[in-house]
């Protein structure tokens, strides 16, 4: 009982720290576009949201999905199609994209959550590949051409998102919403039960929890938020393409999360920012063709040497030296 | 951190640039900046790729490195044949690095995506590598020029020649994206007009490595002609598989609809002899082409494909237009380029139409037999010239929004 | 495609035969994955890269040292197995105490490194490798023209697959291997050098991938990305067959090749997705796979 209480107070203390960190991050986010190319920042935000959504599965439910690219792509394609062909406003387009991703997450989840560990990873990977091939052929995705020239449109029908700055603040708002949802989910009773399942599934079952149901809800939530990232991204770049559906994208989001710190709230954000910056920076210079190799090296180093990632290591370090 | 700094500086610079760009009659940021976008390492890298970048650099050097006293710079990037990578790159080029003109551009899917960005940002693109005739048809923009060739020209060159020799039933192996679709549509039209018919076809993904089941379908179709509506490594792989499965021995003929000098060179004359093809340029045609190609060869170790030659010519034409317009402002330069005929080693009396199509003579060529070839690069004999007004889709059939009365 | 609706037999048999050839590759690759998974509990994500390495070693050998195809068929698997053993001894070994997922992530990183460096040096368009003289030409089977080399692929892969099966099911070494899969600690207690067994197993699985790579070299162009294209399909095959089952991997591999071929006749649009659809159905009916044991 006492340990439980101690833990709770630690959680609360942690939360206030998290809140401070979040405020700091938000402040940086608000002024950043005046110093840095906004489209680059928007890319970072989209991938940060994507990685946070992925982290919900790996970090808190302990399930490694190797198929999250499918949700990112679904969000992008559906939103793109809705905005282009049905002429809806951006926020409605995003909503439709998110619903589609969540629905796909439900189907994936139903099929995959019966298995764990490697089996779960393989099944999600294969399902995502199925989705990839469907998108190659489906007429509404434009196949190899992708969807091009998606209009950014007017938010609520009135605020034009054509300029990079308004678009940036829109993306920032979406990121904050997504991030808050994840944060709340993790710290709700639902999140605690997820963690319990991760730590000891048979025990959670014996306590009477419908484990599969909890996992499925987590998976759908994760898919929906990954879709949100994809939807937003398609509006930022005004295109949706097969790159997002490729299994390498599923690998990339794992890398972002692993590098930043699995199961930490800021880890995926740090990881996504690092990876996107690295890709952007390297693709300019003479090292451009080495990008996959460098990502692979980071992967290997992370797995072998620091499995808790950047944020995890910092946490360990501060705990050791300042507590 | 360095990255951030760089981006920061560029953002400030671009904010300042935006205020100065309004003044016409000047060169924005005191520099003419060209971005070269192409597949640098993939399926299509031989026909444009690093060689095309070298050709563009040659054009700048020959121009003296300066236009109206302002420096000309060029940057290159690899689009990996992916529309998203190409479009994002160009967006960043224009937003951050103040690129005035984009050259190269190979995969049609990339080109269409990039042209949309270029149109939205009101800059210029000159497409040399892509084939799809839709670039100046339903996807035409006031900011883009299609310089070297297109699927309409290929269909009316190679396609017509094949049908005239009795190839009146066709089966297509089509690369499943913008280019393949346009190629197939344009040839189908030619075949039907000439009284032939299309009996079937398969669409394969870009960069397929196993063509065996497609070739099998082509054999089962009973068509006289197997038309390859693909390009680069896909064409060479189709030809290899066709050879393995004995397509020609069984009595069918293969028509490669888009074949570059570099493909013929890498496959060898033994495999390609007798193939007919349409090209916008051949190095061994006139003294001028030979002189330029020799210089190109000295720099790259290979003879130029029509795309690489076209890149030089297009960059040169662009710089000339900037010079006489006295500005790099988009509207003025586009008007100047469309007004001035192109007369160089690449084209005689070439003309850029209102839809952005550059029209010039094309050539129907045949690949030489090994016995006829006198050197490594002695590969084609030119059968006939297809005059400019016959080679490209007439404006009367155009679906382009810029063409009057549409 | 209306003229195909009647399905003349030559189309059907032709596509089935092509399917069987593709199935041969699936079988070889999923067999290697299954063996590695059985003992190491690791999904070897670098399998595709090692398959590619096999093809490249053959290409290097021919181009720079004049090593012919037949020698390469033996030599390339040995070279790639040596690389695999080095990876196992220096990297994979450190992760056996951790969650098995880390093994998957490590090999994924390795695959990125290997493929990325090859793309840097060779581009993605592929290098030519010609069919060995003895296997050139082909026979007209009546319903189709079968190139001799493609027939050889089926024979070679069947021989290797069933040889492997025999070795595992009928020999002493195979018995150790199976025992190690069931209970490595107990086997160690019997005085068997289990770490060595693990190393050799990984080496053998990798060698199978390289062997498939050499077989593929003359018909597909030797390209750095040839492995990543086929790998995911093979993963689906392994899921369908039931992970870790030797016979399951081989039979499912061949079967999936045939199903793919059949789909190309009846509904070509679905030929790239049919294996994944089969996977979904199998997962719904038998979550452990066709030949797998319920975990």
From TrEMBL, chain A:
Location of this chain's protein in the cell: Cell inner membrane
InterPro entries: ABC_transp_permease, LivM-like
Molecular function via GO: branched-chain amino acid transmembrane transporter activity
UniProt keyword terms in alphabetical order: Cell membrane, Membrane, Transmembrane, Transmembrane helix
GO cellular component: plasma membrane
Membrane topology summary: Multi-pass membrane protein
One Pfam short name: BPD_transp_2
TM ranges: 20-37, 44-72, 92-111, 118-138, 167-186, 253-278, 290-310
Cited PANTHER family: ABC TRANSPORTER ATP-BINDING PROTEIN, HIGH-AFFINITY BRANCHED-CHAIN AMINO ACID TRANSPORT SYSTEM PERMEASE
Protein's UniProt name: Branched-chain amino acid ABC transporter permease
Annotated organism of origin: Oceanospirillum multiglobuliferum
From TrEMBL, chain B:
One Pfam family hit: Peripla_BP_6
Matching InterPro entries: BCAA_transport, Leu-bd, Peripla_BP_I
Signal peptide: 1-24
Keywords attached to this entry: Signal
Domain of life per record: Bacteria
CDD domains recorded: PBP1_SBP-like (cd06327)
Domain Leucine-binding protein, residue spans: 31-368
Family of this protein: Belongs to the leucine-binding protein family.
Protein name: ABC transporter permease
Upper lineage: Bacteria, Pseudomonadati, Pseudomonadota, Gammaproteobacteria, Oceanospirillales
Automatic annotation (TrEMBL), chain C:
UniProt xrefs under InterPro entries: ABC_transp_permease, BCAA_transport_permease
Bilayer topology annotation: Multi-pass membrane protein
Gene Ontology cellular component annotations, sorted alphabetically: plasma membrane
Main subcellular location: membrane
Species in which this protein is naturally found: Oceanospirillum multiglobuliferum
GO biological process, one term: amino acid transport
Record localization: Cell inner membrane
UniProt protein name: Branched-chain amino acid ABC transporter permease
